[in-house]
Design a protein that fits this description.
This protein has about 1000 residues and is of the alpha/beta class. The chain is about 35% helix and about 20% strand. The radius of gyration is 31 Å and the shape is globular. About 35% of the residues are buried.
C-alpha cells in the first residue's frame, strides 16, 4: 500500500495565505553580495519581524505538508535554503520521515512547476560534532557542510537543514572548528547565517521570543521566519490594571488560521469518545493530595501528612498503591509519573486489576472499530478496507519487557485479554458466508497464529531506551512503528501474508512527532502528569484515516471517531478538552454586548451564501426583533417564538453561525456521561410516503460510458504521445557539482557548477514503466505498448526517455484531459439487484429505525418547533449550514408538501464517474392533482467551487432517469429559491425542461 497525498481545500487556503503575506525577493537590491551563490537572494524587508509569517493550524490538519509545499512555492523565486527548527528529536524524526518519503516525493513531482525540483534534506545530531578519536582536526558534520556550501547554481534543488532545539542551543553550534567554510567561516552558526536562510519553526509555543532557543535562532540571521503550530507563545503587555497576557503573533494575528473549533466542526480531524472505568465511591474518596515535592514526598489526606523518602514505597502509606511504586526523587515516581503540587493520587487506579480493566475496554473498542473498518458496511463490503491501530501509553518499560527477553506482567495480561477477544470473534465468524466476513475470519486466525509465535508479530513497543539498541527483535518493532508507516497500514505484505501488527505500546516517547492516521484507540494506563495540553494528548489519533489503497477518508464519506481511554483520576478530561478547544475561538464572545468582532464574524459567514448581506442588514434585523439597544447592548428580556430568553440567546437563535465558529459541536467530543444523543429516530409513517420511490432508488445503477469514450480516451492519448510541445517525454539525468577555487575581492572562494552526466541517464525498466502506466491511466496495455514504440521511434530510438518523469507527465496529463472529455459521455443503467443505504435495508425492504445524528448534520437546533411533515423526530434539528440549510428546515410549508426533510449522508449513493458516491441534501414530496412529485435539492453557496459544479452535473444526470417517477432535481443557493420551485411545481407553472436543462 502506498499513501496517496491529496491536497485539501484548507491546505490550499493556507498556501494561498502564505503567498499573499510573503513580500518576495528584492530584485532591486544594491547589496554587492546580492548574487552570492551560497546564499538565498535578498528578500524585501529581510530580517524585519513585520514581514515574518505565522500559520496557525490544528494538530492533525497537515502543517508539515503545508510548509513542505511552501518551500516549493518560494523556490519559484529562487529561494533554496531553508532551516527547519523543531523542539524535540521525535518531532525531527517525524518531519524527516514525511519530507523524505516516497509518497511525498512522488506527489510534489507531479505538480506543474515542481516536476524537476527535489529536496535535499540535511539533518544534524549531537553525535555528528564529536571527534571519536579525541584528537586531530575538528570538522563540521558532513551534512551541515553540504547544506552551507550548496549553491543556487543547482536550480533544481531545495536545500533544507533540519535541526532540533537542543542542537540549536548547543555549544557545538557556536564553537570554532579547524575547517573553514565559505572562504572564512569556522563557526556553524555564523556559516548558516551567511547563507541568508529562511527559518521554519515547528511548534512555536516551545520557542518564546524571550528564551534562549529563539535567541539562538536569531543568531542564524534569518531573512524570514515562518512559524507553524496549533499554539503560539504568550507575552505580557502593560502594567498594573492594564497588564494582560496575549498571544505573541508577529503581526498581531496569524496570516492563516485553522483553529481547533473549525478543525473539529468541519470534519478535518476525527471526533472523540472519552471513557474510563468506574471505581467505587469509597475508593474515589480515598485520595491523597501532593503537598510537597523535594528530597521528600509529602502527601496529605484528611488533614494528616504522610512522608516518603527517596526509594520508599507508596504502599507503605496505602496498600492500594499497588505495583511496587516508589518515590524516585526529582519530582517523579518510579513509574515515570511527574508530580505537581496539589495533584490528586487515587490508590485504586494504580492497581493491576484497574489497568487490566482499561486494557479490556481498549481491546473491546479496538475490535468494535476494526469490524466496521474491515467490513465497511456502508458499502456492503465493497469499499476498500481500513486497517485499525491502537496505541497504549503505559507506566514503564519493565511492565512491558521483562529481563532476558521475557515478557513483563502488562504484556502477559494484554496477551491473555487479547486472546480471549480473538477467540470470541473467531467463533462469531467461523460460519461466515459473505466474502468480506470470510476474509476477516482469516485475518483473525492469522492474528492468533502470530500471537502464539516465538517472536509474536501482533503488538510492538517503542521506548526512549530503545534508541540504538542492538537487539534485532526490538529494533524490528521500533522500525515498524517509526519508519514503516505504510506497512502498519497494510493488511498483507508483497508475498500475500497477513500483517497482523496493530497494537502499539510506549511511555510518552510517541506523544509528539509521531503520527499514524489509523490510530482509532488510545489508552492511557496512567496520567501523564505533565503540562501538555489535552489537545496534544489526543493528537496522535486525530488524523483522518486512510484505506488500504492509501486514500484519505474524509468525514463526509467515512465517519471516524477516536476512542480515548483514561483512568478515573482524569474523569474531567472531556470537559477540560472541550474548554481548551473553545479557548481557540477566533473572537471573544460577549453575552452582554454585540461587539464589532461578533458583527464581522456573522457578516463574513452570511456572505458565503448571500453576497448582499452586510452589517446594516444584521443590525436592522436585530433591531426589528427587539434584541439590541441603540448602543448594541443585548436586552435582558426578549421574546422569540413565544419563548422568553436573553438578547444573546436570541442572537444565537437567529444567527447560529456565531457559535458554529466559536464552539465545538456537542457530539465532536463525548464522554461516558454525555447526554447528547448520537442517534436520530425516523418517523416511519412519513418515510412510508416515500416507500415506492425508495424501492426504485435502492436499485443499483451502474455508470455506462458511451461507446465513443474509448475512442475519446485513445484520441486524448494519441494527442498526448505526439508531444508537440516536447514537454511530455523528458530525459532525467543525475547531476555532478564541479567545484573550483577562484579569487573575488581578494578572497578565496569555492564556485560550484552543476553539470549533467553527459552519458548517464536515470531510467526505468520498460516492463515496470508499462505496468505502472497501465494502472495509472486504465488504458489497454497493448495500446500503450504500441504508442510507446511509436514515440521512442520518433525520438530516434532513445530509450532513456523511459523514466519516472516521463511516466508522471503522461499519467497526469492524460487523466486531466480525459476527465474533461467524459463528464457528459456516460449514462446510468439500472441493475437487477438492490442494495442498502444509510436509511434503507434492501433485504427487508424497509426503512431502518434510526440513523447517526452526524449523518444528518454537525450542528443541532433546539429551538425548532415540531413539524408533523418532517421525516425525523424534532426538535432538535440537525444541519450543516445555518444558511440555507437551517432556513429551509425551519420554514413552514403548505398542505401540498406532504413530507420533507434532510437526506442523511449515503441515503441514495449516486455513483460518480470520478469515483465515490453522492447524495443530495433535501427531499420534498408534493401532491399535485393526485399525482406525487418528488423534489430533490442540493444546496450550495452562490460562489460554487469546481467540485460543486461537478456534483450538480452528476446528480442532474442521475435523476433524469427517474423523471417518469415524478422526480425533479435542482441545485439551490437560498431558502427563497427552494420556496419558489415548490410553488411552481404546485401550480404547474414549470416544465420538465426547467429542471433538467
Amino acid at each position: 500500500m502506498k499513501i496517496q497525498l491529496e491536497e485539501l481545500s484548507h491546505q490550499v487556503n493556507a498556501i494561498n495565505a502564505i503567498n499573499d503575506s510573503f513580500y518576495g525577493v528584492n530584485k532591486n537590491s544594491n547589496d554587492p553580495n546580492a548574487n552570492y551563490i551560497y546564499a538565498n537572494p535578498i528578500l524585501n524587508y529581510a530580517g524585519n519581524e513585520k514581514s515574518y509569517i505565522d500559520v496557525k493550524m490544528e494538530t492533525g490538519t497537515g502543517k508539515t505538508f503545508v510548509y513542505t509545499q511552501m518551500m516549493y512555492e518560494m523556490h519559484k523565486q529562487g529561494i533554496f535554503k531553508f532551516v527547519i527548527v523543531v523542539p524535540t528529536p521525535s518531532i525531527k524524526e517525524g518531519a524527516r520521515n514525511f519530507i523524505t518519503s516516497d509518497y511525498t516525493r512522488q506527489y510534489f513531482s507531479g505538480i506543474p512547476e515542481y516536476e524537476n525540483i527535489s529536496i535535499q534534506l540535511n539533518t544534524i545530531n549531537a553525535g555528528d560534532f564529536s571527534n571519536k578519536k579525541g584528537k586531530g582536526r575538528r570538522n563540521f558534520p558532513a551534512q551541515l557542510s553540504e547544506f552551507i556550501e550548496a549553491t543556487r547554481q543547482n536550480i533544481n534543488q531545495i536545500q533544507v537543514l533540519l535541526i532540533n532545539a537542543g542542537m540549536v542551543n548547543s555549544k557545538s553550534m557556536t564553537d570554532d572548528y579547524d575547517q573553514t567554510l565559505l572562504g572564512g567561516e569556522t563557526s556553524p552558526i555564523k556559516a548558516i547565517a551567511a547563507t541568508r536562510p529562511v527559518v521554519i519553526i515547528d511548534e512555536p509555543h516551545r520557542f518564546p521570543r524571550n528564551k534562549v532557543t529563539y535567541k539562538a535562532i536569531e543568531k542564524m540571521k534569518p531573512q524570514l521566519i515562518v512559524r507553524f503550530g496549533a499554539t503560539f507563545p504568550q507575552k505580557t503587555t502593560g502594567r498594573g490594571k492594564n497588564k494582560k497576557t496575549v498571544t505573541d503573533y508577529y503581526r498581531g494575528k496569524p496570516q492563516f488560521t485553522l483553529n481547533a473549533i473549525d478543525s473539529f466542526n468541519q470534519g478535518l480531524v476525527k471526533a472523540i469518545d472519552i471513557n474510563y472505568p468506574d471505581i467505587t465511591e469509597q475508593e474515589a474518596n480515598r485520595l491523597y493530595k501532593v503537598k510537597k515535592i523535594g528530597n521528600q514526598l509529602v502527601l496529605s489526606r484528611g488533614g494528616k501528612d504522610y512522608i516518603l523518602n527517596k526509594g520508599e514505597n507508596l504502599a507503605n502509606i496505602d496498600e492500594g498503591f499497588a505495583g511496587d511504586i516508589t518515590y524516585a526523587g526529582s519530582k517523579e515516581l518510579s513509574n515515570g509519573l511527574e508530580l505537581k503540587p496539589d495533584m490528586k493520587l487515587i490508590p485504586g487506579t494504580f492497581a493491576q486489576n484497574y489497568q487490566d480493566e482499561i486494557i479490556t475496554q481498549a481491546v473491546k473498542r479496538h475490535f468494535e472499530a476494526e469490524e466496521r473498518n474491515f467490513m465497511r458496511p456502508e458499502s456492503e463490503g465493497t469499499a476498500p478496507r481500513v486497517k485499525t491501530l491502537s496505541l497504549f501509553f503505559i507506566d514503564s518499560i519493565a511492565s512491558f519487557r521483562g529481563p532476558d527477553h521475557t515478557k513483563g506482567w502488562l504484556a502477559q495480561h494484554f496477551e491473555e485479554i487479547l486472546m480471549r477477544k480473538l477467540n470470541q470473534l473467531i467463533s462469531k465468524y467461523e460460519m461466515a458466508i459473505e466474502p468480506r466476513e470470510k476474509e476477516y475470519y482469516e485475518f483473525l486466525k492469522a492474528t492468533v497464529r502470530d500471537l502464539k509465535a516465538e517472536h509474536q508479530q501482533v503488538y510492538a513497543g517503542y521506548f526512549s531506551e530503545d534508541r540504538g539498541t542492538g537487539d534485532e527483535a526490538i529494533q524490528a518493532e521500533v522500525n515498524d512503528i517509526l519508519k514503516n508507516k505504510e506497512r502498519l497500514l497494510s493488511f498483507k505484505d508483497k508475498d500475500g501474508n497477513w500483517i497482523t501488527r496493530r497494537f502499539l505500546f510506549s511511555k510518552w516517547t510517541l506523544r509528539e512527532g509521531w503520527d499514524n492516521p489509523n490510530v482509532f484507540v488510545i489508552a492511557k494506563l496512567r496520567t501523564s502528569g505533565s503540562e501538555i495540553s489535552k489537545i496534544q494528548e489526543v493528537g496522535r489519533g486525530l488524523r483522518l484515516p486512510v484505506d488500504e489503497t492509501g486514500h484519505r477518508l474524509q468525514q463526509y464519506e467515512f465517519e471516524s471517531r477516536l476512542s480515548f481511554l483514561i483512568g478515573y483520576d482524569e474523569r474531567d478530561f472531556a470537559e477540560t478538552l472541550v474548554d481548551q478547544v473553545n479557548e481557540d475561538s477566533p473572537i471573544e464572545m460577549n453575552h452582554d454586548e454585540l461587539t464589532n468582532d461578533m458583527i464581522q464574524l456573522i457578516v463574513n459567514e452570511r456572505q458565503k451564501s448571500d453576497k448582499s448581506f452586510n452589517e446594516d442588514k444584521l443590525l436592522d434585523d436585530l433591531d426589528n426583533h427587539n434584541i439590541i439597544t441603540r448602543s448594541n447592548k443585548f436586552k435582558s428580556d426578549v421574546e422569540m417564538d413565544g419563548k422568553k430568553m436573553s438578547g444573546y440567546e436570541a442572537l444565537v437563535q437567529l444567527y447560529p453561525e456565531v457559535e458554529h465558529r466559536t464552539k465545538v459541536a456537542k457530539d465532536k467530543i463525548r464522554d461516558k456521561n454525555s447526554k447528547f444523543t448520537t442517534k436520530v429516530k425516523l418517523r416511519k409513517s412519513n418515510w412510508k410516503q416515500l416507500e415506492e420511490l425508495w424501492k426504485q432508488l435502492s436499485k443499483r445503477r451502474m455508470i455506462k460510458f458511451d461507446d465513443k469514450v474509448n475512442d475519446s480516451a485513445k484520441s486524448v492519448a494519441e494527442e498526448l504521445f505526439e508531444d508537440i510541445d516536447n514537454n511530455i517525454f523528458v530525459l532525467q539525468q543525475p547531476q555532478i557539482i564541479t567545484q573550483k577555487i577562484v579569487t573575488e575581492d581578494n578572497k578565496m572562494i569555492v564556485q560550484e557548477t552543476p553539470e549533467d552526466y553527459k552519458d548517464t541517464y536515470l531510467t526505468m525498466k520498460y516492463g515496470i514503466f508499462l505496468k505502472q502506466l497501465t494502472m495509472r491511466t486504465n488504458l489497454p496495455v497493448h495500446f500503450l505498448h504500441q504508442k510507446m514504440i511509436e514515440s521512442i521511434k520518433r525520438l530516434n530510438g532513445n530509450k532513456n526517455y523511459i523514466n519516472e518523469k516521463t511516466l508522471g507527465n503522461i499519467a497526469r496529463e492524460f487523466n486531466k484531459r480525459f476527465n474533461e472529455k467524459i463528464r457528459d459521455l456516460y449514462s446510468y443503467i439500472p441493475l437487477q439487484f438492490s442494495s442498502s443505504t444509510s436509511i434503507y435495508d434492501s433485504r427487508k425492504q424497509e426503512f431502518i429505525d434510526e440513523i447517526s445524528a452526524n449523518d444528518l448534520g454537525v450542528y443541532d437546533d433546539k429551538h425548532s418547533t415540531k413539524d408533523d411533515k418532517y421525516l425525523y423526530d424534532r426538535p432538535p434539528l440537525r444541519y450543516d449550514s445555518a444558511n440555507p440549510e437551517l432556513k429551509i428546515l425551519k420554514r413552514t410549508y403548505d398542505d401540498n408538501v406532504v413530507v420533507f426533510g434532510k437526506l442523511p449522508k449515503r441515503a441514495i449513493k449516486i455513483p460518480r464517474y470520478d469515483n465515490g458516491t453522492s447524495t443530495p441534501d433535501f427531499i420534498f414530496k408534493i401532491e399535485r392533482e393526485r399525482k406525487s412529485i418528488y423534489l430533490m435539492i442540493e444546496t450550495k453557496a452562490e460562489n460554487m467551487r469546481l467540485g460543486d459544479q461537478r456534483i450538480e452535473l452528476i446528480q442532474k444526470k442521475y435523476f433524469e432517469g427517474l423523471k417518469d417517477s415524478g422526480v425533479y432535481y435542482r441545485m439551490a443557493t437560498s431558502e427563497q429559491e427552494v420556496h419558489e420551485w415548490i410553488n411552481k411545481l404546485e401550480n404547474g407553472e414549470i416544465k420538465d425542461s426547467d429542471f433538467t436543462n
